[in-house]
Amino acid sequence: MTYIAKPRLIHPGLRKNKLGLTVRDYEGALSTLCAGCGHDSVTTGIIQAFHELDTPPHRVVKLSGIGCSSKTPTYFLRDAHGFNAAHGRMPSIATGASAANKQLTYIGISGDGDSLSIGLGQLAHAIRRNLDMLYVIENNGVYGLTKGQFSASADLGSKSKRGEANSYGAIDPVSLALSLGATFIARSFSGDKRQLVSILKAAIAHKGFALVDVISPCVTFNDHEGSTKSYRYTREHLTEIVHSDFVPLKEEITVDYEAGGAAAVTMHDGSVLLFTKVAEGYDPSSREAVFSYLMKHQASGKIPTGILYVDESGKDMHELNRTAETPLSEVGFETLCPGSAKLDELMDDFR
Amino acid sequence: MRWTVDCGYNLRSVKPTDVFDPNYFHKVVDCQYACPAHTNVPEYIRMIAQGRYTDAYMLNRETNVFPGILGRTCDRPCEPACRRTRVEEKPVAICRLKRVAADLRDDISERLPQIPTKKNGKRVACIGAGPASLTVANDLMPLGYQVTIFEKLDKAGGLMRSNIPHFRLPERVLDEEVDAILQMGVDIRYNKPVASMKALLDEGYDAVFVGTGAPRGKQLELPGRHETDSIHIGIDWLESVAFGHITKIEPRVLIIGVGNTARDCCRTSKRLGATDVKVIARRPRKYFKASPWELEDAEEEQVEILINHSPKRFVVENGKLIGMELDRLEWREEGGKQLSTIIDTVTIPCDAVILAIGQENSFPWIERDIGIEFDKKEMPLVDKKTFQCTRPGVFFGGDAAWGPENIIWAVAHGHEAAISIHNHCQGLPVTERPQQGMTLVSQKMGLHEWSYSNNYDEAARAKMRHVDLVERFKKLEIEVELGFDPEATAREVQRCLNCDVQTKFTDSLCIECDACIDICPLLCLTMTPNAEEPELRKQLTVPAENLKQELFVSGPLKQTKRVMIKDEDMCVHCSLCAERCPTGAWDMQKFELYLPHAGQASWTTSK
């Protein structure tokens, strides 16, 4: 970690967004993660995405569990609401928060340990309920905070820093989310910010659960020869099978996408997701096609990236439960607590 | 793999920056680069921060020779260049800090260069004992030369003595620094104006250096000019005051001109009895030649500045000056030119007028048939690099070479001329200049510790304290600026951004993790496919629009063949890129320029 504070100096040429804020207004505290950690790049990606979307920082809720990844909400959007939950329990807190106020934007940051080991059940049910949030898994294949044991996402046969090979197969969050019915599934790489920011923006605009699996190398425990989640290995094996551009609402679409055979998906807020380059035989709107394509690719050792699956027609938790528009904090006390007579009346209904 | 497809290294790309060319990192140290003598500013500011005043003074003296004098009077080309002005309003008070070192230093006599008792047999004549000649003597005496200086007055210092009033530059400061050079054994001949160059050359000196300045004040030939003795030429008048020949002036004084001489004339007038001093300027304020701080100093002393007034006539009655007639002007811009129209004519009553509208060179004592060629404007033809005129062995420097400049320029000229004189006397071509060089030393002390203060300090520029407005007029010699107190000094040194501690990048170590790019507070860094420079400048995280500042471009990076680009413009040398770099690809390394003076060897690398 660094001892000095990041100087509060603003480059005069820095672009201001519609709220008059520069990208630096979306920062948080200085990171205490290891120098070169992929997570810090993801943090910067999130900062850029919210800045470019002109989101007021105080209208965002950032949540996390436990782990290196879960420390990172401190490092972005210092003006946002935040909650650091128990290990693996962030989806529950997010569900509760979202139920209480659906007008805010929810972003959960988790890691492969927090989401695929201790919190796997929580993640599965958040997907199943289609909770309206962006859920980022900063995936590095190791338990960094406990000095580099294999995590549940470590590939079979990949080597630890000490040279041992992993004897278990990996849980792939993308296939998992596909099978659980997630409505937005993407994979990216912390070392490719251009793609990452574009995916994050679309994921934020998506209504429902948006899972973004980001390969985010652990520079201290998993960036060596034999690792399958190192900077080098990832760069050598990633293949962008879906290239998309996110066009926010009210911005003119300049690409003639129809001519290129590409497709467009209109998001619920009116913004448009343009698929400009899609691998041959790939259809990001067909769950079965995506599943079989990914299974095939997994065997060949490639790491497919891009917005792999998207379905804007799914119903989210609020629609399914017909929740109130008004945040509970704005509902009057009398309405929230109608008194014991009303309670008795309600109880009678169940008798 | 889309990286390698569209990120290839092609012919249209910029070559990797050669950081081992001393010029690259020198340019990053904006203050040092802007200083004509290239004083190592950040290093001496750090020394002051550590309380090493004598070391700081000696480091200054190596290049600028007169730290105490310049710490009060320098035109400070370093300050407008200061990197700090790009991230906040005001530069580091470099000049004032120099004065701190000069004021608080110990005795330096032990640390001055040894003068060989056995001379090398070469005799050099310098004409005029100003800063240029004194610098030549300072550089050549330690090499065993016999230097003779001819001075028309009875004291040395040139314009520093005659034109800078004592309330800006106390005589003891001037004496001390001039004497340090004269006491090297310079043969100084006072009251000896050189009347004939030919005669001097006939005396058989091995080299002659002309450092006679620009000694003639410009005239203003208007009706009434010669009908009274109350109209003075600024620089002559200041000289008479400096030497005690003039001790008072009439109550109402008009100063014509707005250069630094005009400033000194009005402030001096206020101390010699004038009660109503007005400065007459033809143009609006933004075209003034005076340094902004000089203007502030004069206005603080209730000097009135009348803009847009053009002198028309001196009003003289019975041999007595009673006023001046001036045209009031209105300015407009047309096709890049400023044009004026006269609105009306006003008369401003006054008892004396001082003309401070510029100085010119004058060489009536140089014969035109001795191989020293002059141009149409009667200026000698002098080579810009060697300072030699058309007659081998005769050199010019300071204001004498190309017209009025400032002391620090004269010093820089002196150093370069001394190299030429040394070459000339040793039988080497004057064009053979010793090579500059540089050293780069890592400043890493621990995981996140550096041997310099890398934390950006938000302190505002310290204000100079002045003697109050009653006290200062009691005597001409009272120095108005009191210097920085210890608290102001301690604050001000921390404002320096340590631009000499460079961000040094090693492309083979980079794993392209983006950590440096993400942390940089001013977004100076970008990894991008290489392209031509104008294109690269547009592609950066924040486009690099300041073309005066360089881009650092690395070689192709190992994993993606992209290049690392750093826009030097806004970097505040906070070291965060190096702190966040997991592989040490970025390091903070102190750059030191090797700047050889006369007799010092060319740079050679041991590698």
Characterization of this structure:
The complex is a heterodimer of chains A (351) and B (607). Chain A is α/β, with parallel strands linked by helices. Chain A has helices spanning 38-52, 68-71, 90-100, 112-116, 120-129, 173-180, 193-205, 231-237, 287-300, 317-321, 333-336, 340-350; strands at 60-64, 81-84, 105-111, 133-139, 142-143, 149-150, 184-189, 209-215, 238-240, 242-247, 263-266, 272-278, 303-310. In chain A, the strands form three sheets. Chain A has an eight-stranded mixed beta sheet with strand order 2-1-3-4-8-7-13-9, sandwiched between helices. Chain B contains 22 helices and 23 strands. Chain B is globular and about 90 Å long. The model of chain B is unreliable at 1-9 (pLDDT under 50). The interface between A and B is large, with 39 and 37 residues.
Index terms:
heterodimer; A: 351 residues; alpha/beta; Rossmann fold; eight-stranded mixed beta sheet; three-stranded antiparallel beta sheet; 12 helices; 30% helix; 19% strand; B: 607 residues; Alpha-Beta Plaits; Fumarate Reductase Iron-sulfur Protein, Chain B, domain 2; FAD/NAD(P)-binding domain; 4 domains; five-stranded parallel beta sheet; 22 helices; 29% helix; disordered N terminus
Q: How would you summarize what this structure contains?
A:
With 351 residues, chain A is an alpha/beta fold.
| Tally of helical segments of chain A | 12
**What multimeric state do the chains show?**
heterodimer
Structural category of chain B is: alpha/beta
Strand content of chain B: 15-25%
Terminus-to-terminus distance of chain A: 60 Å
Strand order of the largest sheet of chain A: 2-1-3-4-8-7-13-9
Tell me the major beta sheet of chain A: 8 strands, mixed
**Mass-distribution shape of chain A:** globular
How many alpha or pi helices of chain B? 22
Q: Could you give me the name of the CATH homologous superfamily of the largest domain in chain B? A: FAD/NAD(P)-binding domain
- What structural class do the secondary elements of chain A suggest? alpha/beta
Overall CATH architecture of the largest domain in chain B: 3-Layer(bba) Sandwich
- Quantity of strands of chain B, as a count: 23
What portion of the residues of chain A fall into strands of 2 or more residues? 15-25%
What integer value in Å does the Rg of chain A equal?
Answer: 21 Å
